[in-house]
Amino acid sequence: RARQLSHHRVVVFQMAMRDHLHQKKDTEYAIRKAIQGNELSLHFQPQIDLNDHSIAGIEALVRWQDTEGAVISPDTIVRTAEDTGLMRQLGTWVVNEALETYATLLAQHCAPPFIAINISGHEFQDSFLADTILHAIERHQVPPERVQIELTEQVFIENLSQNQHTLHTLAAAGVSLAIDDFGTGYSSLAYLKHFPVDTVKIDRSFVADLPHCKDDIVICQAVIKMAQLLKLKVVAEGVEREDQRDFLLDLGCRYAQGHLYHPSMNIHQLTALLTQSQPITRLFN
Ligand code: C2E
Ligand code: MG
Ligand code: MG
Ligand code: MG
After folding, report:
1. Which of 173, 178, 254, 266 is most buried (most C-beta within 10 Å)?
2. How confident is the model over 130-148, as pLDDT tens digits?
3. From the CA of 59, how far away is ligand 2's center (Å)?
4. What is the pTM of this model?
């Protein structure tokens, strides 16, 4: 009986594994098709300057609705692309699409000060990454100072010499660097001194329970203080309520991104927003 049971477990396990593998193969196939067949799109989320409520920049976020209408999260897209060797293709598409869109906004004189593009830790290890970004900047004729790359702390832990080279190449070209999901990566703070970083984005897990959670208060306080001392900009992610915003503002945080202001939106919604409600004085072009 015991043996029967354990045999049964093995069979169940094998079936689960097979389903898992099939699912992974399906997703892999679908993603390959999505990248090649132009099924991906970018949405954009504004970052707000809390001083005057203007749009300080926009972040590009990849979106994919498959042919059956299911929405696949960017985390799944990125993870699957990384697992299946499609990350360079995906990343190249994102960078070019983002810069093409931003160039269009520049031509329409409604571009916010910068566009931010996410680059995963895995993507960052690609020695072609800096070239890909700089070529796209040149191709779409976007001033490099108006491009921000969002990286995670992983970049400072793994494959350091390659990553360092990439960071310095981008910074030397004028591209700015932001640390995304700051505080979740267990890296040392010392690297902020040694790398050409301009901005830290406080992870939304530390913002969610403000202004009530004592630990989160301390963490936000420390990050904002440190950023001020190091002359870095601070953006709070996932700001959904006014009490969070007010608290962050009191701590000295100048920028916020979140549903309190704007969700991510497609290019039509973004253009409408930028051409209708932006205070003219904040538009740099
Ligand atoms: P992220 O870069 O930290 O982006 C912020 C995420 O928080 C986005 O989720 C955004 O839609 C969501 N968000 C914004 N405001 C709020 C809010 O007020 N409340 C809540 N609950 N969420 C908010 P999204 O678009 O699902 O992206 C998830 C992650 O996937 C991103 O996190 C980023 O790490 C990654 N990702 C997205 N697009 C790309 C891409 O083009 N390339 C790479 N490498 N990664 C990407
Ligand atoms: Mg980001
Ligand atoms: Mg983030
Ligand atoms: Mg993230």
Report:
1. 178
2. 999 999 999 999 999 999 9
3. 7
4. 0.90
